[in-house]
Specification:
Length: 560
């Protein structure tokens, strides 16, 4: 009877949180005492550094995809630096040693690009290498970055409960985080300190930044301004704070740098196209702080913030008036044209909306993918019906585009999230006929098959994903859960053990292994994993309940 209860508990709780495929994605105190000289091997790239917001930064690089920052660091010869990473995501997922060595050996741009996975790339290359969700890990492992200071959106560390949510989310998202690292994360004075996957990190809001005793490597992802919270991926249309506020915080803490990298992150929907103007604002603040601070420029930024806030809060007429005033000053501003298009569309002025989009495309060719960008923003906001229509529209109008397979995968995503799992499975099969070596799509198809109740078919499909990414403990965990749900615990066990080995701070990995062992009558072996799951996520009522039941069964068996 107790085994039936345990298996029923597993079925009711599920075998884990909703899985997030790789690429969908994420502390130590300052490494030296204040006033200590920079360590050997950390030379300034341009011979000098500048105080952010006060002096022109010598080197400022801006790109679409955030992983380009790593390429720039390599090409500029960055070594042994503190990284101040302003972002809605930590970008620190684990990579296996052999991949790190391949990255270490890549010293020129062509070889680095062969290892960089673009978000739209669904080839076999996407199974390994570095991308937007993990590029800081190889930067640390190749001694270019010695510590990551992750500046999270305001409110992410408001209190102990917020820290607990963030820590739990990181443990479930990142591979390679040890139990000692999880237990060693400390929240004090509004900042988190410790290490993750062997990388010293500090996690802090902008107004809690420490003073650094040396020039830092500054890295800004513009999705910092539009990410609602680092524990989810919801994207806001209007920036949550101004570029002035961020620059003032960096200046207030005396942050100095010789190299700043900036990422748009419009691809995959993390920054709405309407907000790409933030790239110009940040670049100006870094390159020409005096002009950035001029009253005219400040007033223009304030007017734009107000217009976007009105648009986001359902006041399109007010937004349109403000945007038209800005348009008269800057007619060649593509993001402004797209914001105007949004306002016109919400007012039912479709002809005017299309004219604005046409002007945006003539100014910026990348605006040709507006429907794709918008689809991702809608999907990240949980508006799957709207996202599905946009992705399908994009595919119909751009069937030969390089991003069409990506759009078809997003169609399948939306169908799955709308609980149309049979259609989602068919869409994934159609995609895999064209991209058979894309591990994440096999992962997604397995997820759809499991949602339809066919766990054996899901396990078979997930084995294909594991074949393509044999090093990924997250993939092993998912495969183990499918075998477990198919009532094949002996088949599940090696994969769940691999998951615990690679993700030892994941409560769900320990919980599933405990269920697996208990279902085979191995209560004393299962108990430590149930207890660890309960320790890692005490808010989950199922974990301590399982641990208590296993204690009872272990005692009963030992008393016989």
């Amino acid at each position: 009877m107790i085994l039936l209860v345990l298996l029923l508990a597993a079925a009711l709780l599920g075998c884990g949180p909703p899985p997030t495929p790789s690429g969908e994605s994420a502390p130590g105190k300052t490494s030296r005492p204040a006033g200590a000289p920079p360590p050997a091997g950390a030379p300034l790239l341009a011979g000098r550094a500048a105080r952010v917001g006060e002096e022109p930064v010598p080197l400022v690089e801006i790109a679409e995809n955030h992983s380009d920052a790593f390429v720039r660091w390599v090409l500029h010869g960055v070594r042994n630096r503190i990284l101040v990473h302003v972002d809605g995501h930590i970008d620190l997922d684990w990579l296996p040693p052999e991949t790190i060595e391949s990255i270490r050996a890549a010293t020129d741009e062509p070889s680095l690009r062969t290892l960089e996975a673009h978000p739209y790339d669904l080839s076999a290359r996407a199974n390994t290498g570095f991308g937007i969700w993990n590029f800081i890990y190889p930067a640390a492992r190749t001694e270019r970055v010695r510590e990551e200071v992750w500046v999270v959106p305001d409110g992410a560390l408001a209190d102990q409960a917020a820290f607990d949510r963030l820590r739990s989310g990181l443990a479930e998202t990142l591979s390679g985080v040890s139990l000692d690292e999880y237990r060693g994360l400390r929240f004090s004075g509004g900042a988190v300190s410790g290490s993750l996957a062997g990388v010293p990190v500090m996690i802090v809001e902008r107004n809690r930044l420490p003073r650094f005793p040396e020039p830092v490597l500054l890295d800004i992802d513009l999705d910092y301004f539009t990410t609602d919270s680092p524990v989810d991926q919801r994207v806001m249309l209007a920036p949550r704070l101004s570029t002035d506020a961020l620059i003032e915080s960096l200046a207030d803490r005396g942050v100095a740098t010789d190299l700043a990298t900036v990422s748009y992150s419009t691809v995959a929907g993390y920054l709405p196209y309407e907000d790409r103007h933030l790239g110009d604002e940040i670049s100006l603040a870094l390159r020409d702080p005096q002009r950035f601070r001029s009253p005219a420029m400040r007033r223009r930024r304030q007017d734009r913030m107000k217009a976007l806030a009105a648009l986001a809060s359902g006041r399109p007429a007010e937004a349109l008036r403000a945007l038209l005033a800005l348009f008269r000053q800057s007619p060649k501003d593509a993001p402004l044209q797209v914001a105007l298009s949004d306002a016109h569309r919400r007012l039912g002025q479709l002809r005017e909306a299309k004219a604005c989009e046409s002007r945006a495309r003539s100014i910026d060719p990348s605006a040709a993918r507006l429907d794709l960008y918008r689809g991702d923003v809608e999907r990240l906001g949980g508006r799957n019906e709207e996202a599905l229509a946009l992705f399908r529209k994009y595919m119909a109008e751009h069937p030969e585009d390089d991003a069409a397979p990506y759009a078809s995968r997003r169609v399948a995503f939306c169908l799955f999230d709308l609980h149309r799992v049979t259609e989602a499975a068919a869409a994934y099969r159609q995609l895999l006929a064209l991209r058979p070596d894309h591990a994440d799509s096999h992962f997604n198809l397995a997820e759809a098959l499991a949602a339809s109740g066919d766990f054996r078919a899901a396990a078979s499909e997930q084995q294909q994903a594991c074949r393509l990414r044999p090093f990924d403990p997250y993939y092993s965990w998912r495969l183990g859960t499918y075998f477990l749900r198919a009532k094949e615990p002996a088949s599940a066990e090696p994969h769940l053990r691999r998951a615990v080995e690679g993700r030892p701070a994941s409560a769900w990995s320990h919980y599933n292994l405990a269920i697996c062992l208990a279902s085979q009558g191995r209560f004393s072996e299962a108990l430590p994993h149930a207890e660890t799951a309960a320790e890692l996520d005490p808010a989950s009522t199922g974990f301590p309940v399982l641990a208590e039941k296993l204690r009872e069964m272990s005692l009963q068996r030992s008393a016989r």
